[in-house]
Design a protein that fits this description.
single chain, membrane, mainly alpha
Length: 94
């Protein structure tokens, strides 16, 4: 009996550790730091690519991809909430 309890306690601790990792990963996935880090890398890559192909005002033109990324990631939670509210069928009155 004690052996089973000890095994269950180890399993609970393993689940708690896993949940903590999952919560940390979720926090990173939804963080502003991640969003703006990706936007910065995207800007640098776009600026370099546009410079290499000879686009005038490449620094200004390179703003388009990261701004689109930031706008899309910041608007998705609102779109998701709207979709959830409007896609769930409400029971009809008889």
């Amino acid at each position: 009996m004690e052996e089973r309890v000890a095994k269950l306690e180890r399993e609970v601790e393993a689940l708690k550790a896993r949940n903590a990792r999952v919560e940390a990963e979720k926090a990173w996935e939804t963080s502003y730091a991640r969003t703006f880090s990706i936007a910065l890398v995207t800007y640098a890559a776009a600026a370099l690519a546009l410079f290499m192909v000879g686009v005038e005002n490449y620094l200004l033109a390179a703003l388009v991809p990261p701004l689109a990324y930031v706008l899309s990631t910041q608007s998705l939670p609102a779109v998701k909430r709207w979709w959830i509210v409007n896609s769930i069928r409400k029971p009809q009155k008889e």
